[in-house]
Amino acid sequence: MVEPTADPEVREALTELELYLSDTLPPLVVAGSADLLLRHPPGLVAATIRSWTGAQYAKSGGEASVSDYLFHAVKKIHMLGEFKLVPREALGAYLDGLKALVLADCPAEDRPLLQENLARLAETATASTTAPVVSLHRQTSGARGSPAPGGEEASHRRLSLYLQRLEAQARLALAAPSGRAELTETLAAAARESQNAGEVEGYLSKLRDLGLQVGTADVFRALASSLPAWVLPPSADWQKAAPASPALDAMRRMVTDVEDPRESGRRFQELVRAAVERFNEGSLPQAVSTLEAAERLIAEKNVDPGTVELARRKGDETLDPERLKVSAESPAQHSGLRKLLGFFSSLSPEGLLEQLAREDKRERRRLLLALLEVHGEPARAAAFEALAVPFREISAEQWYLRRNLLYLLRKIPRPSEARLEEEVEVTIRHAELHLPPPLLKEAVANLGQLKHEKSEVALARLLLDFEKALLRPSEGLPEPKELLLLLDRVASSLGRLGRPGARRALLEHALKRDPKLGDCAARLAELSGLDLSEDAEFIGKILEVLKSNLPFKLFGVALHQNDQILLRLIEALSGTPAPSVRTALEDIVKRFPDTDISKAAARALAGYRKGSAGGTGPPSPAAPASLTGDLEVFGLPALLQSLSDTGVSGSLTLRDPRGEVFGALRLKGGKLRACQTGNLAGDDAFYQLLERPAPGQFQFVKSADALEETGTGSLQEILPLTLEAMRRYDELRQASALVPDGVRLKSTDVRPAPHPAEKDGMLQKTLWARVSRGATPLECEAETRTDAYRIRRLLAHWVEQGALIAEAP
Fold first, then answer.
1. What is the pLDDT of residue 146?
2. pLDDT at residue 124 greater than cutoff 50
3. Do 151 and 126 form a contact (C-beta atoms < 8 A)?
């Protein structure tokens, strides 16, 4: 019996070993403890195995034998050598002594089987699971042979390879900062592959031992930057079918696999900061995906509410205002930007309105208004609620805010369920002559959009109020120059309102000739281009005025009354091809040739004829409708699904920033007919376009033909192809971390085994020949007619197997 050690360091190492045996801690984390225990007699570890076995046997209720637990424990320790986490030579000698002690603890009836399995320990490999142990590294009899490698052991082998690459890249990064990018990619891959946060901490510990200052914040940044540069379409089909993101799953584990709530909260805040950094660096989709992971953690109540409140309230403080402005100015980015804004309290509609109420800098107010526009209907509803609060006297701060709120009501489309009359009444309260002119201008502009009888009455009243104020100035009213501008604004709103009473009010104003009112007739220009044919009464009135102002002859001399009003009236009728109007204008052309009014009438008649010609005869073939945009904004998956949902036929062309075509797709009825990129065609080309997303522009040109080209394949649904491509994207990132673009690989004496999922034997043979001759993975991709995923998957498989190793840089 070995006495318990008094050394606290050894006691801690034995505790870690026990947790490792139960799969609570990963191999990397216990490597240091194992190295310490190798310097002590194996009796210490044997005693730990004995007590651990008794506890596990009792928990399982005898489902597994004592000898199975003993074998599992020794096998787990043996694996530390396989993964090169402890010196193999020292471990081999140590295990010889440990096996003898473990055999002594085994029941006599099971001892021969345990002895047989321990003797060929290096040849066996099975999988283990999490604590308490349910699926053991089971013993096998000689007749059954050894199971094939796979499961958790294969994962541990990959993790060991990641560790080796991280160590090499850390040294390069310390020597040259440019090497940090490859280190980040490998760190992200290792985190995605890890089973829990402890394994990730093991990587970080190794890197810190090498002198590289890294922490969990670096892991979140690496994972966020490894996400696809697109946001999934919001359709239910996508949400159900889209593959889980390994990077987002890793982020979740990093936060949840921590017992200390304070540490979990700190990591959650690092996750949010990683999202903000991705946005500031220009990747809105990656930022949105990262924040969606944060939202899931909140919904699952995995984060302390106080930490969540702090992140929502303070997390946006480092968002780049210029980047926010650029994104807000692009309608195509609004969907993603709304999700980002919605995470932070101060960027919600209510939070933005609060800021707007106290902001005195003009540029900042413009940004706040642009972000409120991005929110759309919720921001409009909040703005209306604030405007509806009654007021008597209004301060400068209040009228600035109310002016901005009116602007939002006009800019954000009014939903169909909004009560028009109530909105008109609220707006009319802000259309009073005694209010500041900027606020009044905004109210007048809004009334011009609210097509309601009360809007008509309010605008007509304002027109008269401004006329009176200009004719009889008084103290407390705006200056005449300001009043004339307001008068122009009212006239414009009356013209846009499209109601008969508004037109009559505008015509009555236009006939006034007092110079204090400015050029009243010119304000009739608001009617030009409008077809007033349905308003026969108004047409009759305007023709009556027109005729009454025409020149007349006295003693044979033509006397002109007011050519200026005639020109304005003709301009107002230039969009109205009613018979009575045509007759009146033709009469002017005939009676008053070579005059300005005759020329104006002739232009209006020519416009009628042109419009009429455009609507007669056989219809001309429609020009192909095009859709163009930025791939980085739309994202290829969302673009393709949008085209699929609309069931269109046509050609989609993808161009890089230099304008060179790098991809071409043909669709028929929303289904894929053909695809080409580089030397790839068909499915391989489609997968490649999503596996290697590239910046650039797209152009889709509709086609009415059936696209029945000779040799084209059958039509394929977009959704299944896209989902498979997205799955390949994630796995390609993992494989590329083991076999980066420029690494040189060399063969070993291990025979390369085929990948179980790759059925193309010729591809495996050709690829092995090329990589054996020194081709890099990137060169192999250029020379092989298949997508990058299949090539990297095979190369990573051979590296994991040991048939290939990376040459030293």
1. 34
2. no
3. yes
Helices (H) and strands (E) in the chain, counts: 37, 10
pLDDT digits (tens, 9 = 90+) for 246-303: 999 999 999 999 889 999 999 999 999 999 999 999 999 999 999 999 999 999 999 9
Handedness of CA 277, 281, 287, 290 (dihedral sign): negative
Q: Which residues of 387-419 are buried (b: 16+ CB within 10 A; e: fewer)?
A: beeeeeebeeeebbbbbbbbbbbbebebeeeee
Contact in structure between 718 and 636 (CB atoms under 8 Å): no
CB atoms within 10 A of CB 630: 14
Q: How far apart are CA 493 and CA 447, in angstroms?
A: 7
Burial annotation 560-575 (CB, 10 A radius, 16+ → b, else e): eebbebbbbbbbbbbb
Task: Determine the length of the chain.
Answer: 809
In this prediction, residues 609-636 reach a mean pLDDT of 63
| DSSP of 430-490 | T--TTS-HHHHHHHHHHHTTS-SHHHHHHHHHHHHHHHHHHHS--TTSPPHHHHHHHHHHH
pLDDT tops 60 at residue 132: no
Nearest-angstrom CA–CA distance, 802 and 748:
7
Q: Write down the residue that tokens 């009444």 correspond to.
A: 425
Q: In which residue are the tokens 């390994």 written? A: 246
Helix (H) or strand (E) holding 200: helix 197-209
Q: Is 643 in contact with 652 (CB distance < 8 Å)? A: yes
Give the Cα separation of 127 and 72 in Å (integer). Answer: 10
Place of tokens 């999490």: 130
As a whole number of angstroms, the distance between CA 356 and CA 69 comes to 67
Contacts of 259 (CB under 8 A, 6+ apart): none
Q: Cβ distance 578 to 586 under 8 Å?
A: no
Whole-number Å distance between alpha carbons of 132 and 60: 8
Nearest to 258 by CA among 299, 213, 303: 303
Q: Are 128 and 76 in contact (CB under 8 A)?
A: yes
Q: Which 3 state secondary structure label does DSSP give 650?
A: strand
> 654 forms bridges with which residues in the sheet?
663, 698
CA distance 631 to 624: 21
The encoded tokens of residue 279 equal 């946005």
Work out the average pLDDT over 682-705.
Answer: 89
Q: Nearest to residue 182, comparing CAs of 788, 754, 582, 742?
A: 742
Where do we find the tokens 């919904």? 299
Q: How many CB atoms lie within 10 A of CB 616?
A: 6
What pLDDT score was predicted for residue 159? 72
Cβ neighbors of 18 (< 8 A, separation 6 or more) are: 48, 51, 52
Longest Cα–Cα distance of the chain, Å, equals 142
Tokens of 389: 């609060």
β-sheet bridge partners, residue 559:
552
pLDDT tens track for 290-344: 999 999 999 999 999 999 999 999 999 999 999 999 999 988 889 899 999 999 9
Task: Assess contact for 403 and 439: CB atoms under 8 A.
Answer: yes
Alpha helices by DSSP H, listed for 624-682, are 631-634, 636-646
Strands 680-681 and 671-677: antiparallel
Strand partners, 557: 554
| Distance in angstroms (rounded) separating the CA atoms of residues 343 and 140 | 54
